[in-house]
Amino acid sequence: MKNKIQKNKLGLLLLIAAVMVSLPIISAVGISSDYFVKNPITAYPGETKVVVFGRLQNMVGGKDLILNAEIIEGKDIATILDKNAKYSVPFGRADIPVNVRISIPAGTPLGIEYSLNIRFLDVTPTAENSGTITLSTSSSRRIPVVVVAKPLPLANNATPIQEPEKNAGNALWTLVGIILIIAIIIVIFLILKERNRTSRRRRR
Fold first, then answer.
1. CA-CA-CA-CA torsion for 171, 177, 179, 184, nearest 10 degrees?
2. Among 10, 71, 136, 173, which has the highest number of CB atoms less than 10 A from its own CB?
């Protein structure tokens, strides 16, 4: 019985250690954007435009990050404009823009939808001889690019209607994930504690 209790405690310790290691992976890199599935980037055939693909966030973890961006879908229509596609994201910042040039070939049929997917890899250097093990984590975001008709020129007195800005950050999901992991640890701890009490009663 003692061996069983010791195995349960060891399993709980391993679970807690795994959770602590995974927390930076869950929360280190965040990406918010004005564009999403129901609000895609739009461009007409032959148009070249620059858009802010998203804004990098670093709100959890307590350290500055360096991220490398790579287009994994949509290389035929998109180019990252920022120098070397490398971004310094200080801790506490949530507004580092990722600027992308979109070019739609002339003659592209209206309604065609491209997929623009950019991956951000954490390449933050670590101190030498620190004795710590680091994991390279990444986060990606996919935004559709829809080909639309070229807008008609506005009349001299006409004013374009601006839609309210929409942000799709993932800070809320990060918090929910952390709370869920903590709740799982508490439940497992209570179950093991109850088993220990039951085993002690049986001995008596």
1. 180
2. 71
CATH number at residue 180: 2.60.40.10
> Taking 90 as the threshold, does the pLDDT of residue 73 lie above it?
yes
Cβ atoms within 10 Å of 136's Cβ, excluding its own = 9
Residues 114, 74: contact at Cβ < 8 Å?
Answer: yes
Instruction: Print the domain residue range for 64.
Output: 2-151+165-203
* Residue 152, Cβ density class (10 Å: 0-12 exposed, 13-18 middle, ≥19 buried): exposed
3-state helix, strand, coil in the chain (%, to 5): 30, 30, 40
Residues with Cβ within 8 Å of residue 144, at least 6 apart in sequence? 37, 40, 41, 113, 114, 115, 116
Give the predicted TM-score (pTM) of the model.
0.62
In a domain, residue 157? The reply is no
